[in-house]
Write a structure and sequence with these properties.
11% strand, alpha/beta, Rossmann fold, 644 residues, globular, 7-stranded parallel sheet
């Protein structure tokens, strides 16, 4: 074991070393077992000398270099706002980074111990990976983790560093325990979801005990100034007086969107808000080009797709009466919480399950009751429909699992026949198209490609194909531990040409050293597509980004891509805007449920096209509403709240 002594301390270290006789004595005597222990002691001693937050002591411990405006924003939050404020940067500028800097600084100074991060379910894993990879904070547990669930009702008190989905945390049985815990720091992502003070979500956050609280939102005002009042009240109750006084003093009569006494209002907001625009920070990304490769399935693939689709459509109607609302796990704020990705069940669990035997994700709330079985079967049917869009063989385990739970012999026979049919199909049109695309994209040995697929079984079959092509590749999936994931990314960066990944690499990882991405499977949730693109088209990318989407004609994914590309111009959006747009849709169902309803209710290809056309028009209207919100926020806040 190497000891650190005065002989192998650099001059730079000595200049940084606090004037502490005890520390100098320990170093001279070789009391540090490693350079890392010495470095940590050095940082700790240095932190003691830093007064206030004029300097962030955590910067040397980061795994990346934040931008200057992000550092300044964190300093303002710490120094001026005293840990209670809003980061309101435009989408894509790094509100998560700014909040992470505040969190890291507080932890480095031992100011906070108990931290709760509340975020939409789709962003839980992304938060965990960002904190672990960029900030060196691997100790966070999520409300979806097995160890958290195993702890039962005591879980909220047991884990001091916790990331929870809003849908989970605000449930009555959880909320009652959470509001009893004195948190040091609470971070609330996508805070525009808390704009209504009469909602369960707003009341939940307002009831939390907290010393410090950070709100993150790109759109602090969407409809009227009352929303701004509600968010500020979560941070500093009384900052804007009572609702009545606020309206009288700052809201123009007859127009709840129009402020008056703007100078006074800006002064008050300046005590709690930091906001940057792209024009201020002058960050530009290289262009990106998206191409959709529409391919035809072979006859045997088409027959299988239609047969399974007909089965799924028919049996979903049994679980959800035709034209009715979807089945839900519970209600909150009057809005149902679904049993798939946008609810509490993680997308990773849906897309990477090896089989559906038993109850893989704990959706059975009533044990073995008939209603519980229907919920599991509905989950399996939805998964099955996604699987047949990936590869026929991916669907086999789900078909056999459903057959094992079939209620009658006829249903069991039909499912087993479909499972056997999947194994007899020799063709795979999507994989053939992928091979051609790879051979074109990888002509230059220096090029790298990321391939995203939904399902672990598809990943395994594609890995066999890549071996046959003689390509160097690594796999990345949610069943790997953090060490294996990190090694896979390192191998991809330095050695392999291809990263073959499930949805797991769409969360948290920055892969700017690669510029080409292939969506082998298309998620039904557009935010998932956006997250994938964000892995390579982000700050730090220097080359034009290329995105290829593989789409089989006549599939659900084909219709989805058409409206996302042609109606919404999705691949031209800034990363982060998709969530803002979907949030403008007045229908309270998740986007995937809107998609599913269209597909279920269509009796012909013509009806299917009409249904997707209407959905496309809804998306266009949502984008226009979002653009109006942007314009309103810009007019209201301008550039008065930057960290300059």
């Amino acid at each position: 074991m190497t000891l650190i002594s005065s002989k192998n301390i650099s001059e730079a270290d000595i200049r940084l070393l606090p004037v502490d006789a005890a520390a100098l004595k320990d170093i001279s005597a070789g009391q540090f077992a490693s350079r890392e222990l010495y470095r940590l002691r050095l940082l700790a001693e240095h932190a003691l000398l830093v007064g206030g937050f004029d300097e962030l002591v955590c910067l040397e411990a980061l795994e990346f270099a934040p931008f200057d405006y992000q550092v300044r924003a964190a300093q303002i939050m710490l120094r001026r706002f005293r840990g209670r404020g809003m980061f309101c940067d435009e989408v894509g500028l790094g509100k998560t980074i700014e909040a992470g800097l505040v969190l890291k600084e507080y932890l480095a100074r031992n100011v906070v111990q108990h931290v709760l991060i509340v975020t939409p379910a789709a962003l839980v894993e992304q938060w965990r990976e960002e904190l672990a990879i960029k900030f060196g904070l691997p100790g966070f547990v999520t409300s979806a983790d097995a160890e958290f669930r195993a702890a039962g009702a005591e879980a909220w008190e047991r884990f001091p560093l916790l990331i929870a989905s809003l849908a989970t945390a605000r449930r009555a049985e959880h909320r009652a325990r959470i509001i009893q815990i004195p948190y040091d720091l609470i971070i609330v992502d996508e805070a525009h979801h808390f704009k209504n003070r009469n909602s369960t979500s707003w009341k939940f956050v307002n009831d939390l005990q907290r010393k410090y609280i950070l709100l993150l939102t790109a759109t602090p005002v969407e409809n009227d100034l009352d929303e701004l009042y509600n968010l500020i009240t979560l941070l500093k109750p009384g900052q804007l007086k009572t609702p009545r006084e606020f309206r009288k003093r700052f809201v123009a009569q007859g127009d709840p969107r129009l402020p008056k006494n703007r100078g006074q209002l800006r002064d008050l907001l300046g005590d709690v808000m930091v906001r940057h625009t792209r024009s201020q920070v002058n960050i530009k990304l290289p262009p990106r080009q998206a191409s959709t490769i529409r391919l035809g399935l072979t006859q045997e693939e088409t027959d299988f797709y239609q047969a399974v689709s007909n089965y799924v459509r028919a049996h979903l109607r049994l679980h959800r009466p035709f034209g009715s609302a979807p089945r839900w796990r519970g209600t909150s704020q009057g809005r149902p919480q679904s049993i798939h990705p946008n609810g509490d069940t993680s997308q990773k669990e849906i897309e990477e399950h090896p089989s559906l035997n038993g109850d893989p994700i704990g959706v059975l709330r009533e044990g073995t009751g008939r209603e519980g079985i229907r919920q599991v079967d509905r989950f399996a049917l939805l998964t099955l429909q996604r699987e047949i869009g990936s590869s026929p063989q991916s669907a086999e385990p789900t078909l056999r699992s459903l057959a094992a739970r079939a209620r009658d012999a006829e249903q069991r026979r039909e499912l087993l026949e479909l499972a056997d049919q999947s194994t007899r199909i020799q063709t795979w049109a999507k994989a053939d198209a992928l091979e051609k695309l790879l051979l074109t994209s990888l002509r230059d040995p220096a090029e790298k490609v990321i391939i995203f697929t939904h399902f672990h079984r598809t990943l395994e079959r594609l890995a066999e194909r890549l071996r046959g092509l003689g390509l160097s590749f690594v796999t990345y999936h949610g069943q790997m531990d953090m060490k294996s994931k990190n090694q896979a990314i390192a191998d991809f960066e330095h050695h392999a040409q291809v990263l073959l990944s499930t949805e797991a690499a769409g969360e948290g990882r920055n892969l700017q050293f690669c510029r080409t991405m292939i969506n082998f499977d298309i998620p039904w949730n557009p935010m998932r597509i956006e997250q994938r693109v964000g892995r390579i088209h982000r700050i730090g990318q220097t080359r034009e980004v290329r995105i290829f989407n593989l789409s089989a004609r006549g599939t659900v994914e084909d219709y989805l891509l058409e409206i996302l590309d042609q109606k919404l111009n999705m691949f031209e959006l800034v990363i982060g805007e998709m969530d803002m747009i979907l949030g403008q849709i007045s229908d309270e169902r998740d986007f995937e449920d809107l998609l599913l309803d269209i597909w279920m209710q269509s009796q012909s290809a013509e009806e299917l096209r009409d249904g997707f056309k209407k959905l496309g028009e809804t998306l266009v209207q949502a984008r226009q509403a979002y653009q109006k919100t942007q314009e309103y926020d810009e007019a209201l806040f301008g550039e008065d709240f930057s960290a300059e």
